[in-house]
Design brief:
This protein is an alpha/beta fold. Helix content is 46%, strand content 19%. Helix 1 runs parallel beside helix 3.
């Protein structure tokens, strides 16, 4: 029996090696692409509206989603590169560029409210904090229109650091949103201690929710938890009108998704007022 297991393990390792090599090569290629984009500042934000749940669904704020341009000028969304660079120096540089571009948009458009994603790993990155502090010195009220989004997974890597960071920035009026709420990483004890003003419910609980009773039960539980802590509740990935109608019956505060608008590099407000979306 042991010899059979050994043979199977050796065969499995043999089959797995080409796959591992292919994945490693793909990751190296992605890192090279991102490094080149960062070096040449070929990074920009795509803006997607977050709308009020009640009709007529007025825009509450926009989320600025980081994009990079590859060597051919093709726009690459974050999902295609952030998992590879998240834990690297490039991830921190991407966060800096996203924040700087978002702050520029806020300074150029006085009525804009904007959320920008960040990794908890950027909290201790001096250039990220310098970028934020520099903008706040130029306009001390800028923070009142800025929301920082941190995912569940990222927040739980260094919860104590995140809690201290949020405490220090609250005096500037900056809001915080817990992204991908319900993805499974959050610890209830830390959830109580965080200073999140809003939760963005993970899309897995939103897509097709109007016809799935099990998902409905999970969604109601997440909403109840957020309400217990008096948080704004935002549904991500709203793509069907039937889902939107069901979400409204649950009292969701805001919705975001292709049903209300795709991320765009040229939002109407930027075109009208000459705001540059690119970094």
């Amino acid at each position: 029996m042991n010899s059979t297991r050994t043979r199977f393990a050796e065969q499995s390792e043999g089959f797995d090696s080409p796959l591992n090599a292919a994945l490693a090569a793909r990751d190296r290629s992605t890192l090279d692409m991102v490094a080149q984009a960062v070096r040449h500042k070929q990074c920009l934000l795509a803006f997607q509206p977050v709308v009020q749940a009640r009709a007529p669904h007025n825009v509450a704020f926009y989320e600025g989603l980081i994009r990079i341009l590859d060597e051919t000028g093709r726009v690459i969304p974050a999902r295609d590169f952030m998992p590879v660079v998240e834990n690297t120096e490039l991830g921190r540089e991407i966060d800096c560029l996203a924040l700087d571009t978002g702050l520029q948009a806020l300074m150029q458009h006085p009525t804009l409210r904007l959320s920008v994603n960040m990794s908890a790993r950027s909290i201790g990155y001096s250039r990220w904090m310098q970028t934020l502090n520099s903008a706040l010195r130029r306009d001390e009220r800028l923070g009142e229109r800025l929301t920082l989004e941190i995912s569940e997974t990222s927040a739980m890597t260094v919860p104590e650091l995140v809690i201290d960071f949020m405490d220090r920035l609250q005096g500037h009026g900056i809001a915080f949103a817990l992204d991908d709420f319900g993805s499974g990483a959050i610890n209830i004890r830390h959830f109580r201690d965080f200073f999140f003003d809003a939760v963005k419910i993970d899309g897995q609980y939103i897509r097709g929710v109007h016809r799935d009773r099990d998902t409905q039960a999970m969604l109601r539980a997440l909403i109840a938890m957020a309400r217990e802590f008096d948080m704004l509740i935002i549904a991500e990935s709203v793509e069907q009108s039937e889902d939107a109608e069901y979400l409204m019956t649950l009292g969701i505060d805001c919705m975001q998704g292709y049903l209300f608008g795709a991320p765009t590099l040229r939002p109407d407000w930027a075109e009208k007022d000459g705001v540059r979306a690119a970094g």
